[in-house]
Structures are given as structure tokens and as C-alpha cells.
Amino acid sequence: QVQLVESGGGLVQPGSSLRLSCVVSGLSLDYYAIGWFRQAPGKEREAVSCISATDGSTYYTNAVEGRFTISRDNAKNTVYLEMNRLKPEDTAVYYCAAEQAVCVPESFYDYWGQGTQVTVSS
Length: 122
Prior knowledge:
By secondary structure, the chain is an all-beta fold. It is 0% helix and 50% strand. The mean pLDDT is 96.
């Protein structure tokens, strides 16, 4: 079956960096886009970033543009989210999700991981 497993979260101070990983099994990153989403307590889940399978196009929400970088290693079936200059408002559970071919709105993603906690606090 398809599985997505996130890792790399933790407790860090503002200004620090973290690198999240999403290891995918049961499907190929050659054919699936991978999105990163996050959900903070009391708030709805929001899209953070996405990388397309078709042309490798990447997308970022304005809140993380210039600080976060999404990348993939198709041979390892792994997608990464490098998070730099972290802010307290980045605190959330971060999820990765898969959808065929291209980045699409959140509701269209077929498969989801269980999430990894990122806490940014002084």
C-alpha cells in the first residue's frame, strides 16, 4: 500500500533551521506531485509548498517564500523541506501528501502522511 512518512521535526529556537523528510512508498515520484502542508492548533490546515512530478515546478506560500526550499530525490522516493530562519508562527504539525502529476488544491491529494511536529519557541 501507499505510505508517506514524515520525519525531521523538533523543538528549535527562532532563527534556526530544520530539514523535514517525506519518504514515500507504493508510488513513484516520477508520477506524483508531493505537497507539504501544516496545521497549527486551532487553525485549518494550509498548504506550504509543492513540487510537481511533470516538470519539477515548485510552489510556496507567501509566508515561507525565501525561507523554505522543497526538493526531491526520485531514486530514494524522498521529498525534503528545508526550513530556514524559522519563526514561532511556523509552529505546526507538518504533513506531506501525494497527488498525480501536478500540484493541486489541498482537497485533491490522494495520500497523506501522519505528520511531524515542528515547534519554534524561545
